[in-house]
Amino acid sequence: MEVDLLEDALCKKISYHINMSVQLIGLKELKAAVRRNPQRIILEARNFLSRGIAEYKKGIIRNPWKIGGTGGGAPVRTGNLRDTHFTQISRFTAMIGPDKFNRYAKFVHEGTRKMKARPWLEYVKKDKDSAIQKHYSTMLANITHDLAK
Description:
Elements: E1 2-9, E2 12-19, H1 27-36, H2 38-62, H3 80-83, E3 85-89, E4 94-98, H4 104-110, H5 120-148
Antiparallel strand pairs: 1-2, 3-4
């Protein structure tokens, strides 16, 4: 999963990326299935991405990073950071992250010289990794079940 965070500062657009990847076992079988039944694969992939983004969003919203704590979802003081996460799902890609207009997000996530970093996106990714793997297994099972008919 790639999360894009954009920051507008002093009339300059600054972009930074947090690249996250999930190891997907059974990818070779999935590629073969795509060639045989592409519409079913697209539907199942979209369902998988929707479920995965929902898992990440739950982690961001429901488990806030506590002051002085060592991990959690989006830190909550006023709720603006937590409430401004966007999600975007396309054919085979999903993205989640703070809205590009939320300038505070970069400083909270990366920290400043006066504020310790609170990298909630990495924490949530690690926390939800097993749930994402389960959704991936479900997707593969649905695809192979459909192809076995």
